[in-house]
Amino acid sequence: MASTRSFFERLRTICADVGFDLERVRPSILARMRLLAETTETLNDCERAVRIAKDVFRYYDVSKPLKRFTALERRIVVIGTLFSDVGKSGPAGATLDGQQLVVEMFAVESGIDERTSVARFFEVYFPADAARRARRFGALGLDAGMTMREFWNLHSAWTLHILQGDGVPMEAVPAAATHHILENVNPDSIISESGHFTKYFGEHASFERPEKLVILLDKYDAARRRGHCTHDRAIAVLREVIAKNHRFCGDRGFLEIIEDLDEVMKVPEVHPPAPGESVARTTGAPTPFSAPCARQTRPLVAERWPPSPPARGTRTIQSGRAPPRRDRGPRSRSPDPARR
Ligand SMILES: [Fe+2]
Ligand SMILES: [Fe+2]
Fold it and tell me: What's the pTM value of the predicted model, to 2 decimals?
């Protein structure tokens, strides 16, 4: 879990990077973020996604300067990513007890069939006080007969309601709240059929590149950490998710960002050394994600763009080809590890 000692410092630094003063956020929102950081991997996930976002920005600065991300877009991506899962602390009006209950539910990450009811989930994962938890769940105005999928899907709307008008830059709120639109979760119908937002969010009026990047960062990171996917598999998962979505199937904006993520995040392969060259394998080396991550407290992704030059005597290629199966991480336990 996140180190709470440095919690505010970590948040403050990320926000300051895009010119936003964390002190403007309502203390109750920060308290929710802290609760999530103490109990779940949420802050670590968001922090890692922000780091990847910055690599994407740098990649555009260098490789696509005419399409580089504007200051507003960067702010939307970074702040939107950072606060996207604050809804995992429960509904906007939840008491501290209700927040604690919901956070502990989101802290359980593996082995859950999404068709399981919340009541059954409590029996399996919290057998000592399942009935009491079901009652606490009911006290939030929620029905423990709902499926876990229905429960998980609620957190986008909770994010929207928690963040609205409470100090987080309004331009970043839709990016946070729409980060599960590919699962057709469109809280309060904030994205219209035309792609315009149905509420006023300052300078930013429609669902565009920053929102798409926030979504793909979240899914890429989920596939890598929770799904234990290799980079290549994670990119394939992103393509599959887009291909399956009736609204965004073939969406050029999403597809371009997937290509960007592929370019920025892939692990360089190393040719067999020519005679006289030293051997420095990177293909089979552990990636930053290959270690078990559940108790990881430091960021898992170092700055990756621009890539550092290969060691002397090695020749690298940048290919998206998957390494042999023995070099990949364990297979995903879920058919779609990026969905939560
Ligand atoms: Fe989420
Ligand atoms: Fe997330």
Answer: 0.81
Cα–ligand 2 centroid distance for 328 (angstroms): 24
Question: Which residues sit with Cβ closer than 5 angstroms to ligand 2, an ion?
Answer: 85, 218
Ligand nearest to the CA of residue 42, numbered in listed order: 2
- Span from the CA of 42 to the centroid of ligand 2 (angstroms): 7
150 CA from centroid of ligand 1 (Å): 13
Please state at what angle helix 71-83 crosses helix 209-225, rounded to 10 degrees: 40
Instruction: Summarize pLDDT for 56-89 with one digit per residue, the tens.
Output: 999 999 999 999 999 999 999 999 999 999 999 9
Q: Which residues contact 22 (CB under 8 A, 6 or more apart)?
A: 8, 11, 12, 15, 16, 30
How many Å lie between the centroid of ligand 1 and the Cα of residue 153?
8
CB atoms within 10 A of CB 110: 10
Is the CB of residue 227 less than 8 Å from the CB of residue 199?
Answer: no
- Residue 196, classed as helix, strand or coil, is strand
56 — phi, psi (to 5°)?
A: -65, -40
How many of the other CB atoms lie within 10 Å of CB of 300? 19
> What is the tens place of the pLDDT at every residue in 32-64?
999 999 999 999 999 999 999 999 999 999 999
Structure-token pair, residue 38? 């103490």
pLDDT in tens, 274-308: 555 544 333 333 333 333 333 333 334 444 555 55
